[in-house]
Design a protein that fits this description.
- The two termini are about 20 Å apart.
- Helix 1 packs across helix 16, helix 2 crosses helix 13 and helix 5 runs antiparallel to helix 6.
- The chain is about 75% helix and about 0% strand.
- The longest helix is centred in the middle third of the chain and has 30 residues.
- It has 16 helices and no strands.
């Protein structure tokens, strides 16, 4: 029981310490931290429009965090979620603008197409890792830049005739929900949150309740022991990277099908894939922990960008708070050590 409690306490303490350091920085900078955080929390919890925006921003973060966590369960560090995310956006935009189909076919087809694109992008580093033992961190970092330039070329030369953005996707491929928009005072919240929630449950079930999930975890813990036990390590590495890439691709489709409704020629990284790493770390690579971490990050970003907060303190303060939270999660062994010392003292 204490083990699970400690897993919950470590990220919680990291968040508290991050907010505390953020308050100190605000105070040093001449800003009122009490008023700043009061306004921040009011913006997050007291504004129905912001609530809708938080859900919308959390949706791709949940999927990106799951992508990072799934690969990590197999002992792989997928830095390429950003690239797989971009390729998912391209696939969703292509399917969304190229076909006119009934929604019951068109929308699932666009999401599945994005998943396939992300999985294909994840297959490359997975294959190189499994067959040639090329480190996945190096390959996935390079694949991010290849994805960025490839997407820019495809948007400007294949999906359009030298334009800066694609046409709007057909309504039959949109995740937009009018009831949600009206309920949240016409925010950009959409039905993609249900896709993310289903993904959380499915990934939890796959990892913790299936034989295949046990294989993925075993390979992540010890490849040699897994090989000795008769598991196909190379195949599991490739499958893990493909599933991770598929989740990242679906995350990308959420931005096109539910957010923008089109795809602009990318000139820089979106940042969602990289934020997914932080979300996975804060969520301790647990699907339900990732769900909470994604909403925390989305809340901080939406609340920190709210006009009422920016009148009190610069929005960059929120970036500092998030960075400090990640820092404390990264050195969680210190927090765990202190918790263990406290537990031993209480036992005595």
């Amino acid at each position: 029981m204490y083990k699970y409690l400690k897993s919950f306490l470590v990220p919680t303490i990291a968040v508290i310490l991050g907010l505390l350091v953020g308050a100190i920085i605000m105070f040093i900078g001449g800003y009122d931290p009490v008023q700043g955080y009061q306004t921040l929390f009011t913006s997050i919890f007291g504004d129905i429009y912001n609530a809708g925006e938080i859900v919308r921003r959390a949706t791709p973060l949940i999927l990106a965090g799951l992508a990072v966590a799934f690969a990590f369960k197999s002992g792989l560090f997928n830095i390429g979620v950003e690239g797989q995310f971009i390729m998912g956006m391209v696939a969703a935009a292509w399917i969304g603008t190229s076909f006119q189909l009934p929604m019951v076919i068109h929308l699932p087809l666009a999401i599945i197409g994005a998943a396939i694109a992300g999985a294909a992008w994840g297959f490359i580093p997975g294959f190189l890792k499994a067959k040639l033992r090329v480190h996945e961190v190096v390959v996935t970092i390079m694949m991010n830049y290849i994805a960025l330039k490839t997407a820019a070329y495809l948007v400007g030369n294949v999906l359009t005739a030298n334009k800066e953005r694609t046409e709007n996707i057909y309504d039959s491929a949109k995740l937009v929900s009018e009831p949600f928009r009206k309920l949240t005072e016409f925010s950009t919240m959409h039905n993609g949150i249900f896709v993310a929630l289903v993904a959380v449950v499915l990934i939890w079930f796959l990892i913790d309740r299936t034989t295949k999930g046990y294989e993925f975890r075993a390979v992540g813990l010890n490849q040699y022991a897994s090989q000795y036990a008769g598991m196909n390590v190379n195949r599991n590495i490739i499958y893990s990277m493909m599933i991770s890439g598929a989740l990242a691709g679906i995350a990308g489709s959420m931005e096109v099908l539910g957010g923008f409704g089109y795809l602009a020629k990318p000139t820089s990284f979106t940042g969602v894939g990289f934020d997914g790493i932080a979300v996975a770390l804060l969520g301790a690579n647990n699907p339900f922990g990732i769900l909470l971490a994604a909403f925390l990050f989305a809340g901080l970003k939406v609340g920190g960008g709210d006009y009422n907060f920016t009148k009190i303190a610069p929005t960059e303060i929120i970036s500092v708070v998030i960075a400090i939270i990640i820092f404390f999660v990264a050195i969680n062994y210190i927090i765990r050590y202190l918790l263990d010392k406290f537990d031993k003292r209480e036992a005595n």
